Amino acid sequence: MAEKEAMAEGFSPVERPARLSDEIARRIAERIASRALAPGDRLPTEAELCQAFGVSRAVVREAVARLRTDGLVETQRGVGAFVSHSPELSVFRLEAERASPAELRQIFELRTDVEAGAAALAAARCTEAQLEAMRTALSAMAKAVSEGENGTAADVSFHIAIAEATDNPIYRDFLRFLAHRLEQAIGTARRNSATHQGWSERVQIEHEAIFEAIAARDPEAARTAAKAHIINAAHRLGIRSRT
After folding, report:
1. This model's pTM is above 0.70
2. Which of 70, 122, 147, 203 is most buried by a 10 A CB count?
3. CA distance 86 to 32
């Protein structure tokens, strides 16, 4: 019993976020990343984790299921859950809604270069149908601005349309992943813009500049316009570059 209690040391009851299972999975993942739980180690039992975190078995099971899906743990029926032998090869996860200011800046640094590159590829490779998808999203954003609405869904659709137009499945899949994970940050940026006179219109102009460069089949202009937009979006969230 003492050994089991020692295995669960370091965990403490969690506050009540929107999804307890996500928070518990994150905390266990942090211990795996720091090697407090090493590859091959057995996780504490469900009962021990329930007591340590102060949650139900259902919540613990959901957390372990997420860790298993992400490749961080492996389960053996009737035995328990064990840290994967190669947890560093687990699924990449990005959670902008829980990122610290420094982490959010790092996310936007990544987004700046990746989305600028995607815009350049889209300018070189997009089809008329893909260009029309961008145009439709752009029109929806303009309508949202004129009606005083948020326009986040159309904003995300615009960036996904650019991802599709790269004709590169790796770019496409990663940018679709990025767009959906950053949807909350995009929504926050648009809400911030709505509270400052002229900002929403400026955001629309930035998107139009990206579209016009892609439509003109000018990769470098598209790269420049996309980079400027992402940097400005970060600034609207109060995120400043380190350089």
Report:
1. no
2. 122
3. 11
